[in-house]
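Ops channel
N.P.: pipeline sanity check, posting one input/output pair.
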């Protein structure tokens, strides 16, 4: 009920963002049911234009583009969500530890993060994935590790502001352990900026996976992925066939939706009114 009340009071931009996200989630969940063909089946000639049999045409191998687009939503969004969750789990815990314990723990963790952030993110990911191979587990671990450095810095900065508050000092004097402090005192008060950052980090991971797939080191064919679809069908543009714009548009569509929700959440969490 509280969510419905908040939704009724939300601006139009937030409702548009929610609609975009729900459309993508529905496409990812129900892709096997609503797609007209299997994910990897060749159903016609190359780059067939839009028709009643192929609502978005076919790709460079003759596979139904709508089918590939819907399965691509499932693969791309699921991997991006798991990666973002892992990066927040690692980054937030390390950031809270560094802020709460301080001293050598803070110094050691911060120096490790500084070393990782010294490397350009894309180059570092390409270097590691070229050695480990572009498997989905390796993709998730590498991107989560790189992204957790940004989460660490934010969570550490927020936790350091909370850690000096009187209610945290009172909990320390009561003899509460560090895990209790992190879970019951720091985490609830750090949630607004962390949730907002989660939306932004999800967009970054989502776009980063698409970029790696475009470069050939992301999700590997024949698995459908929007970045791979842009790379595979990019050559059609020179012939006046705009097949590659559909997955590119899907990437932009979801990114805009998530950012609209993040803007709304920041406005609600800050308590600011128009």
């Amino acid at each position: 009920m509280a969510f419905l009340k908040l939704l009724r009071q939300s601006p139009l931009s937030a409702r548009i963002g929610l609609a975009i996200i729900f459309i993508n989630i529905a496409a990812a969940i129900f892709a096997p049911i609503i797609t007209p063909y299997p994910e990897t089946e060749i159903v016609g000639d190359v780059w067939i234009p839009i028709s009643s049999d192929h609502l978005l045409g076919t790709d460079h191998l003759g596979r139904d583009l709508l089918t590939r687009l819907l399965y691509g939503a499932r693969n791309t969004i699921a991997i991006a969500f798991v990666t973002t969750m892992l990066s927040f789990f690692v980054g937030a815990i390390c950031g809270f530890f560094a802020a709460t314990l301080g001293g050598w723990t803070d110094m050691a963790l911060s120096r490790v993060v500084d070393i990782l952030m010294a490397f350009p993110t894309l180059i570092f990911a390409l270097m590691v994935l070229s050695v480990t191979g572009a498997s989905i587990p390796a993709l998730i671990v590498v991107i989560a590790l790189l992204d957790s450095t940004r989460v660490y810095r934010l969570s550490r900065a927020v936790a350091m502001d909370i850690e000096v508050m009187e209610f945290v000092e009172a909990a320390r004097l009561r003899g509460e352990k560090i895990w209790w402090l992190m879970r019951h005192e720091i985490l609830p008060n750090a949630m607004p900026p962390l949730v907002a950052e989660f939306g932004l980090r999800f967009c970054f991971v989502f776009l980063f996976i698409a970029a790696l797939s475009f470069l050939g080191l992301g999700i590997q064919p024949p698995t459908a992925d929007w970045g791979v679809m842009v790379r595979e069908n990019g050559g059609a543009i020179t012939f006046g066939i705009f097949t590659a714009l559909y997955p590119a548009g899907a990437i932009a569509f979801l990114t805009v939706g998530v950012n609209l929700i993040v803007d709304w959440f920041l406005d609600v969490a800050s308590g600011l009114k128009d």
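N.P.: looks fine end to end. The chain has a mean pLDDT of 86.
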